[in-house]
Amino acid sequence: MEGLLEEIVAKYNYWIYVVLMMIGFYAMIAKRNLVKKLIGMNIFQTAIILFFVSTGVKRDAGLPIVDKDLALAGAIDVATVVNPLPHVLMLTAIVVGVSVTGIALAVIMRVYREYGTLEEDEILEKIGR
Amino acid sequence: MKLLALAATLLTGALLLYGTADFPAWGDPQSPASTHVSAGYIETAVQETHTPNLVAAVLGDYRAYDTMFELVVIYCAGIGVVGVLRRVRE
């Protein structure tokens, strides 16, 4: 029990993101409303993005904006700057996520216009299944 | 049905938490993500690109094509939205 508690304290970021991911995953597979499903997908995505950003963190390190003169002299201590690569790659992921969300919202609007409802079972009833 | 969904969610979460046992602790400067290529970027990015903001240096200098095609992704999404929402006159 003591070991588990220490494990949680040392890695609490992963625990938070796993819980956040579980919320989003449950919303995606259990909710019947299409908008709620989409919100679940966004929560899921946020959990993954936060997870990757958190892998770049170094304790007591500063922003990845460095002193130019110091850097040109080659005197940057790597441990004092957080890892910039996860941040950059997650910017890309955010862009893709926004695109997917936009398309999904458009499709949801179209579905509502066509069937007059966003509830999954009512739509399935209307298309005769 | 909801019970099945809850069971699947809890199972996935438990597996992920089991997987975190091998992960480095929070804020560890010696974690694998921070020791291999990223140290090289931090040390040489300013000499190679003259951009003090390392995120902007990687995004705009090292990965400029990636950033450009991100714009293509947004453009395609916009076209898709217009195509889905357009009302066709009968």
Automatic annotation (TrEMBL), chain A:
TM regions (residue ranges): 12-29, 38-57, 88-108
Mode of membrane association: Multi-pass membrane protein
Gene3D superfamilies per the UniProt record, alphabetical: 1.10.287.3510
Cellular localisation: Cell membrane
Keywords: Cell membrane, Membrane, Transmembrane, Transmembrane helix
Entries under Pfam families matching the protein: Oxidored_q2 (PF00420)
Family, as annotated: Belongs to the CPA3 antiporters (TC 2.A.63) subunit C family.
The protein's name: Cation:proton antiporter subunit C
The organism of origin for this protein: Geoalkalibacter halelectricus
UniProtKB/TrEMBL annotation, chain B:
N-terminal signal peptide: 1-27
Tree of life domain: Bacteria
Residue ranges of the TM segments: 68-85
UniProt KW keywords: Membrane, Signal, Transmembrane, Transmembrane helix
Residue ranges annotated for the MrpA C-terminal/MbhE domain, each copy included: 31-89
Pfam families for the chain: MbhE
InterPro entries in the cross-refs: CPA3_Na-H_Antiporter_A, MrpA_C/MbhE
PANTHER family: NA(+)/H(+) ANTIPORTER SUBUNIT, NA(+)_H(+) ANTIPORTER SUBUNIT A
Name listed for the protein in its UniProt record: MrpA C-terminal/MbhE domain-containing protein
